[in-house]
Amino acid sequence: MNRKSAYPTKTSMNLFYKPDRTTKPATVALYVLFALTCLLGLSKLLVYDLWMENQEAQRALAVAEEQLNSAMLQLSDYNEVREQYSRYSATEEERALVDRMEVLNLLDTAVRGTARLDSVFISGDTAQVQISGVNLSQTAQIVRILESSPIVAGTVVNTASTTENAGTLVQTSIQIQLQKEEGEG
Fold this sequence. Notes:
The protein is an alpha+beta fold. It has five helices and four strands, in the order ααααββαββ. A four-stranded antiparallel beta sheet has the order 1-2-4-3, covered by helices on one side. α4 runs antiparallel to α5.
């Protein structure tokens, strides 16, 4: 019996040899090109983007400096403006006083149609008022109206005298103590 071998055997020799191309200049050039591409990508992130961000910040700084210079030019006459403002604005003493227009409006409201307002003298927080052409009950009514106002702290009727020819009509001098309204500062 011819015994055939159970295992295949190699009867010819393969002389194919694959050379190592990793040392050839083309392969080295590919590795260098890959490394340069990686460096280019990293340099964009680590250098170019930061440089552009810096340039943008420099532009924003230039704009802000220009705005600051413009504002400083506008403020160059600040001391003159402040001096004019302080010349025409109310002083601390004047702010502590009751508004004179409020006092005159109150007096107009109190005596309108009933009396003749002869004189008004306002100094500090005191007003001296002279009225005429009313009787004593009308004078009392005017005083009640004045005292009901929040800007009046109190009133004093100094004189109430009759005129020579008008029997029941009197001339009255009223001293009014003024105060700031509650809630006004």
